[in-house]
Amino acid sequence: MSLKISVVIPTYNSKDLLNRCLVSLEKQTAPLSAFEVIVIDDGSNDRTFEMLEAFATKTSLKLKSQHIPNSGPASARNLGVSHAEADWVAFLDADVIAHEDWVQRALDLIEKSPNLAGFEGRTIVSERHKLTPFTHQTENFYGGRYPTCNMVLRKIYCQFYTKYRIPFREDTDLAFCILESGRTIQFDEELIVYHPPLAANYLRPLKLAARYEYDGLLRRRFPRRYRNSLDAHPFLGIPIPHIKQKVYGVFLLTQILFVLGGLTLPWDSGEFVTISSIFLISYLLTWWMGIRNTLPTSRGLKDQLVLAGVILAVPWVMYLHLFKGFLQFRHEKPFSSSEWLKSLGFPVENRPYEIVLISTADWDHPFWTNKQHISSRLAKNGSHILYIESLGLRQLTTTYRDFKRIYQRLRRSLLGFREVQPNVYVWSPLVIPLHRFRLVRYLNWVILGQFIQYFCKKLNFQNPILWSYNPIVGALTEHLNFSHIVYHCVDELKEAPGMPVKILEAQEQKFSEQADIIFTTSPNLYETRKRWNTNTYYLPNPCDFDHFNKTTSDITVASVLQHIPQPCLGFVGAISHYKVNAELLKRIAQHSPEWQLILLGQIGEGEPGARFDELFDLPNVHFLGPKPYGELPHYLKGCQVALLPSPINGYTQSMFPLKFFEYLAAGLPVVSTALSALEAYRDVCYWCETDQEFITAIPKALEDYRLRSDRIQKGIQLAKENTWDKRVESMLETLAQHFAQP
Q1: What is the CATH number of the domain that holds 103?
Q2: Lowest mean pLDDT across 65-74, 391-400, 476-485
Q3: Cα 574 to the chain's mean position, in Å?
Q4: Residue 197, SS3?
Q5: Which end of the chain is more exposed for a tag (fewer CB within 10 A), N or C?
Q6: Is 50 exceeded by the pLDDT of residue 742?
Q7: What is residue 450's three-state secondary structure?
């Protein structure tokens, strides 16, 4: 087996522990030819290097070692990485013991998920009988702690920040670099190492508290992650970050109050009794926190008495060093994912952007639109997205659905933004949905601008790009500074029901002229917007090919379809009159009662009050409602033909149906009305100019499905060439041509 993994181990005065670690690597079940071991002796003075030289003469491991002046574990690991020959680097500490399947599990993970940035393993405290409040041990059962005593990363990302001079926070810093750049580190509970307790030392709690000086550096580089996710421990099921610091902080304050109270208040006064009680409670809580993990073995009276004294000093040492770090690293610049990726040698088009994305769709809509797909792919590429949900262009109605949406918007807007996936932060804005009034629009933009500015600051956006699907947000640029403006025009919004037509007509041209780039999704949109801005590009809506192509494999048919006779003609999408021709569907159902019409989608989406009573009474028309995105392939698996029964109107003649390539990817023949955007694809679909042509085409499509005709195979290949990943790649290339990188 060729070399797959380089194992890097920094060590400092850990001769015996290191020997034990190397022996555990000799006993791996994986072939020794699959990995090499690189040990960097970071200035040890306990004859560690002599032990390594002797060990090398008798081991079968591919062992490299180097002795350097003491520089800290970050520098030592970087040197080890520079000697690594494999594309993947596994990190161990000298004081751990690798499970015998550790290397093999790492190889399996790499083979299974080669595109991830890396893997975080489970660290288990062994020899628990040696635990005391004064030993040191590391445990990681659930992930999210990222200790480099058990991590496997792609070599290209292994660049530690060398200002960390002690073994503390340098591994968290690297993990945050990777996560901030949109990559993923996956926790795996079967990637196991054992961490025996280090020898007891009565001063160890104070030494560990002094390490928090480097929190000042981590806080400056990653303010949001430091504040929201570092050292989070569950309390009543809720993860609370920095819980140890918070407990020690409370204890420190109660000590101060207790001393001041004792000096200024009578000892028998109610105030002093209250202060003393609070101090005692915080004292006991802090003592419990120090002993809880070692309680079964911590029965010695001496340990308890020493801990009782030491615990008084720990918060003073911790907060003194926190303050020292705050001052020492106050000039440290925040981490820039674009600069970091640039230093790693990533090409221009793969560097991340900071994007404020104004959507016209809520993130958790059951049918994902181009807004969610584009945001998700940009984030995976490393960009940071503040996704702002729909501003409510359509006039509100008195329907239950609109009132429910108002309630949900009120609740969500007060919670601030939420991270829905790495690097995608969703906020539900609270706006007054009366855009036809100038004063209301002005108030909305002022309030919206203030919130966006605040959230950009929290997310540490330095040069955000405005990427909008809503053409009336040009006024935002008067309140905020954006480095560039992208208008992604995917619909002729003024043609949708309930829209403020005059406002849209006036504002869209102005915003189009402001934009640096316009992306359009249909030929009609391209031609009209090109007149306003020469930097206009036509990129039709693609598909999630791998997701919908599952239909061509052996997956199960949705259970509800197993009880419906075939053939089934499927439609997926919003069931509204301006998007679906109800009269055409009625004619199809009545023409051939054996054809079963399967309609998946929300009735009245974008058109509250829409009714389809003329179809509900037909026994072969089945309204199944909206279905989760992940289940759609199972429904399409039960269909033999896919339908695009759109009416021909101002809205549909400027749209490119998102479901078109999804249908093709699913291996289904497509029958469509004469939509302008699909005329160029008549060789892979049935493009019908009349209702009669549409009905006549269905038997031909059924025959195509039965024979798996060339038309279907051609459609699958076309869908494979039009994926969201490729579309976003094209967009990033366009951005790179127009924008200087921040």
Answers
A1: 3.90.550.10
A2: 391-400
A3: 27
A4: coil
A5: N
A6: no
A7: helix
Residues 154 and 110 occupy one common structural domain: yes
Q: Is residue 39 part of a domain?
A: yes
For residue 36, the surrounding DSSP H or E stretch is: strand 35-42
pLDDT reported for residue 81:
97
Tell me the C-alpha distance between 727 and 736, whole Å: 14
Total residues found in the chain within this entry: 742
Helix (H, G, I), strand (E, B) or coil at 299: coil
- CB-based contact 589:618 (threshold 8 Å): yes
Please give the pLDDT value at position 390.
Answer: 80
In this structure, what token pair is assigned to residue 733?
């290339």
Is the pLDDT at 437 greater than 70? The verdict is: no
pLDDT digits (tens, 9 = 90+) for 128-142: 878 888 888 888 888
My answer on whether 205 and 195 are in the same domain is: no
> 293 vs 628, which has greater pLDDT?
628
- Expressed in percent and rounded to 5, the helix, strand and coil fractions of the chain are 45, 15, 35
- Report whether 391 contacts 470 (CB < 8 A): yes
For residue 393, the model assigns a pLDDT of 46
Please provide the DSSP assignment of 123-134 as one string.
EEE--GGG--TT
Residue 415, pLDDT above cutoff 80? no
What are the pLDDT digits (tens) for 715-740? 999 999 999 999 999 999 898 888 74
Whole domain around residue 25: which residue ranges? 5-200
10 lies in some domain: yes
Please state the rounded mean pLDDT for residues 155-173. Answer: 95
Across 504-651, the runs of DSSP E, i.e. the strands, are: 517-520, 536-538, 568-572, 596-600, 621-623, 641-644
Whole-number Å distance between alpha carbons of 607 and 601: 13
189-205 pLDDT, tens per residue? 999 999 998 888 889 99
Give CA–CA dist 74/218, Å, rounded: 14
Q: How many domains does the chain have?
A: 4
Q: Angle between the 691-707 and 582-591 helix axes, to the nearest 10 degrees?
A: 60
Tokens encoding 546: 């791998």
| Percent of the chain scoring above 90 in pLDDT | 62
Phi, psi of 541 (to 5 degrees): -60, 125
pLDDT of residue 406 exceeding 60, the answer is no
> What average pLDDT score do residues 151-166 get?
96
Q: Please identify which residue in the block is written with the tokens 């540490």.
A: 460
Question: Which of 150, 182, 200 is the C-terminal boundary of a domain?
Answer: 200
Give the Cα separation of 504 and 436 in Å (integer).
9
**189 with 221, same domain?**
no
Residues 193 and 272 in one domain: no
Q: Is the pTM of this model over 0.90?
A: no
Residues 143, 190: Cα–Cα separation, whole Å: 12
Which amino acid makes up residue 335?
Answer: F
Least confident of 1-10, 399-408, 416-425: 399-408
The reply to whether 208 and 135 lie within a common domain is no
Residues 6+ apart with CB under 8 A from 285: 247, 251
What is the token pair recorded at 114?
């080669």
**End-of-domain residue from the set 292, 309, 335:** 335
Alpha-carbon span 251 to 312, nearest angstrom: 8
Q: Average pLDDT for residues 586-612, to the nearest whole number?
A: 87
What is the distance between the alpha carbons of residues 86 and 7, in angstroms, rounded to a whole number?
Answer: 9
| Residues 288 and 419 both lie in one domain | no
Quote the distance between the C-alpha of residue 257 and its chain's center.
44
CA distance 268 to 525: 82
pLDDT at position 609 is 64
Q: Which CATH number do you get for residue 558? A: 3.40.50.2000
> Residue 680 and residue 351: Cα distance in Å, rounded?
34
- The kind and range of the H/E element at 373 are helix 370-380
In order, the DSSP letters of 42-106 are ES-SSSHHHHHHHHHTT--SEEEEEEE----HHHHHHHHHHH--SSEEEEE-TT-EE-TTHHHHH
Q: Are residues 487 and 425 in the same domain?
A: yes
Q: Give the whole-angstrom CA distance, residue 285 versus residue 221.
A: 32
